[in-house]
Amino acid sequence: MKLLMVSHYFESHRSGLELIAGRLARELVRLRQDVVWLASNATPPPSDGEGGYRAVAVSALNLTERYFGIPFPIPSFGAICRLCHEVRHVDVVLLQDSLYPVCMAAFVFAHLSRKPVVIAQHVGLVPYNNPVFRTMMDLANTIIVRRMLARAQRVAFFSEITARYFDGIRFRSPPKLMFTGVDTDIFFPARPGQKAQLRERLGLPADRPIVLFVGRFVEKKGLHILSRMVRLRPDVVWAFAGWGPLNPRDWGSPNVIVFSGLSGPSMAPLYQASDVFVLPSKGEGFPLVIQEALACGLPVVCSAETAGADAAVSGFLSGVSLDELNPKATALAFCAEIDRIFADSRNGNRSADERFRFVSRRYCWSSTAVQYLDLIRSAVANPKSWPEAPGSEGVV
């Protein structure tokens, strides 16, 4: 079976969605599928033959991310033409999320070419502080995304949060809740005595607690809350791994260390060298970095919303409510939860090995890929679920 997977960026963008897409592409190749991955050239595509799939990089303007930290590349006319060509020569189209122009265009071309569409929906509404951005996204979800999800042959949600946001849609087939996998050959707890060696190698102090954040340095990840946490706890070393316009280096805090070139396997030692993982983000599904942190044995403090992404994992997470009107109070609440973990690791927290075993059982890449392949095959095998004429399907 020939599959076209479409996303806004390639894996080199280093955000969770693209990392997930890259790993899924490799897993589907391992399952003997012919995979083409099309994305914008805003970040470098994989090398020829890397991963066993064919990468198609199309030109796009990436101004919104450059100036506002919002990933929304606009494909060129040539990119649209290339996308149309690729859609015509595959059996099925897999969209990594809906709310990106390249994914919307792929959906239209698939509809016109009578190609089945599977949508892997990662997020629902991102509650941007800017009311213009927030309103525009809400309208786009209502007017465009909900209709795409209603007309797709198959839909998979990456979290219970996202599934609840899109509740009420009359799907062609019941959507699946499928979480991403974690490579536990890479992400696992530090061995006894190894943490000190890792800290020395990474330039981290051996005798101070280390709190880790991994993600893009943008508004929705809670950087404004983290900046307050850094000032509240100067005795803690705050390690940041990522990139973006809100760089923690600019805070001028001596207890901040930024790692900007890590991703994939090179990220694992930083998880293993840290004590607590923190993520005060909003408007996400279930971030891959949380699964990676748990696999490396770290206790996780995140927003209460994110902690509800998967009911099965809630006992392994510490959720803190985000007060949008009072970021200082939110920062204090996060710091209090981190202090509780430092003070008594047995008080409601699991051991590193327990976290690792849970991740190994719950988020296994090989089984996740098989589930996706079954979903894709069912879309191809059921022509009766192909789209009807535009406008024939609505949203309840």
Name of the CATH superfamily of the largest domain:
Glycogen Phosphorylase B
Give the total of beta strands: 15
How far apart the termini lie comes to 33 Å
Counted by DSSP, the helix tally is 14
- From the spread of the alpha carbons, the general shape counts as globular
Helix content: 25-40%
**Structural Rg:** 21 Å
Proportion of residues in β-strands? 15-25%
Compile the SSE list and pairings:
Blueprint: E1 2-6, H1 16-30, E2 34-40, E3 54-58, E4 60-61, H2 63-68, E5 74-75, H3 77-88, E6 92-96, H4 101-112, E7 117-121, H5 131-151, E8 154-157, H6 160-165, E9 176-177, H7 194-202, E10 210-214, H8 223-232, E11 237-241, E12 256-259, H9 268-273, E13 276-279, H10 288-295, E14 300-303, H11 304-307, E15 317-320, H12 327-343, H13 352-362, H14 365-381
Parallel strand pairs: 1-2, 1-6, 2-3, 6-7, 7-8, 8-9, 10-11, 10-13, 11-12, 13-14, 14-15
Antiparallel strand pairs: 4-5
Helix pairs in contact: 1-14, 3-4, 8-12, 10-13
Written account of the structure:
The protein is of the alpha/beta class. The chain has two domains: about 1-180 and about 365-385, Rossmann fold (3-Layer(aba) Sandwich), CATH 3.40.50.2000; about 195-360, Rossmann fold, CATH 3.40.50.2000. Helix content is about 40%, strand content about 15%. It has helices at about 15-30, 65-70, 75-90, 100-110, 130-150, 160-165, 195-200, 225-230, 270-275, 290-295, 305, 325-345, 350-360, 365-380, and strands spanning about 1-5, 35-40, 55-60, 60, 75, 90-95, 115-120, 155, 175, 210-215, 235-240, 255-260, 275-280, 300-305, 315-320. The strands form three sheets. A seven-stranded parallel beta sheet has the order 3-2-1-6-7-8-9, sandwiched between helices. A six-stranded parallel beta sheet has the order 12-11-10-13-14-15, with helices on both faces. Helix 3 crosses helix 4 and helix 10 (about 290-295) crosses helix 13. The longest helix is centred in the middle third of the chain and has 21 residues, at about 130-150.
